[in-house]
Amino acid sequence: MADTYANYADLAAHNTLGQDYLLSSRIVAGARGANIAIHGGAIEYPTTQLADYCATALNSSFYSLQGVISSSNSALHISSNCFDEPGVSQVLRTAEWTVSWHGTSDSAVTTYLGGLDTELGTAIKERLAGAGFDVSPPPPEIDGKNPLNIANRNLRGLGVQLELSRGLRESFCLDTDSAQPSIAGAFRCTDVFHTYASAVVAAIAETWPRSRTAGGRSSEPEPAGPGMTGRVL
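Given the sequence above, the corresponding structure tokens read:
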């Protein structure tokens, strides 16, 4: 289905910031990368919470646009190749790696892993598989291979796009009502959420330790962030 809005200016012209959608970001000094969710809130729930959890655990930068309309938040979806809200550019302008969190509408329980960062993508795939999660090759329309994809618009031009199926995302939430879109609102997550997010955190931490240089990995990877079990966003 075609997007309602061609870009952020189009969305902003027809919706009210703070009423229909929210923007959240944290730029962490010295952070090597960023976790982002441009279809957050109730657009593709709970991608905001996943990006925030992983960013906090890794002390990475964070960004999310969150749909908070009472219904039909899917209308706020802007294609990853066209997403140009200025705040995300500020977050990504110093990022060497990016993980971009998304959701699909199918009932399968899988992750479609795409993007141009094959090194980090492979590490995430291996960690997820090791934790018991299915990872599938993405169909072309969500493969994240376009250089204009927001996941790839960092310093290296390489990012990872995680497309989580609806069936998988539903296993992360104790609340069946996904109309709790705000990062500021309470989010009651399951142990599956923590297991999944911790696997992604571990993959990023081992691939991008703090001491890594542009030429390759450090021989002493930085440990993943705190377990944070039971954390409520």
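The mean pLDDT is 88. Try to locate this feature in the token string yourself.
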